[in-house]
Amino acid sequence: MRTIQVILIVLSLLAAILGSVAFRSKLAYRILAGLFFLVATGFVMFPDTTTDLAHFLGVGRGTDLLLYLLIFAGVHGFLLLYMRTRRLDRKLTELTRTIAIKNAEHPGLKESQ
Question: Per-residue pLDDT tens for 43-79?
């Protein structure tokens, strides 16, 4: 085994552990992190499999296939962050409205606190 393979396997293991810790309450994301580690380890140990898989799917090289998957994963991650930001924005708006209505109903409540 080459040094770069060891480094890549360790890095993918760290990414899987950090992903699992970050999504501690979501089983689906933990499973996805474990699956990521297994696939990444398989591709690192047997680099020709990416080319074979790419040819099977109609892509010229394994590197191109990985690039396409990386672009897809990046767009997916961006959309997840965007949806989370929108959800937090809606919650903040609702909370602000609730506080404004409460203060409008009881104007002296703010001064007594």
Answer: 999 989 999 999 999 999 998 998 999 999 899 989 9
Which alpha helices (DSSP H) does 1-113 contain, by range? Answer: 3-22, 27-45, 48-57, 62-105, 109-112
| Spatial CB neighbours of 56, under 8 Å, sequence gap ≥ 6 | none
Same-domain status, 36 and 11: yes
Task: Indicate the SS3 state at residue 58.
Answer: coil
In a domain, 13, yes or no: yes
Judge contact between 15 and 24, C-beta under 8 A.
Answer: no
The residue segments making up the domain with residue 71 are 63-106
The answer to whether position 54 is within a domain reads: no
* Encoded amino acid at 50, one letter: T
* pTM reported for the whole predicted model: 0.66
Number of domains in the chain: 2
The span from the CA of 94 to the CA of 40, in Å, is 42
CA 44, CA 40: separation in Å to the nearest integer? 6
Task: Take residue 1 and report the two structure tokens written for it.
Answer: 């085994």
Coil, helix or strand for 46?
A: coil
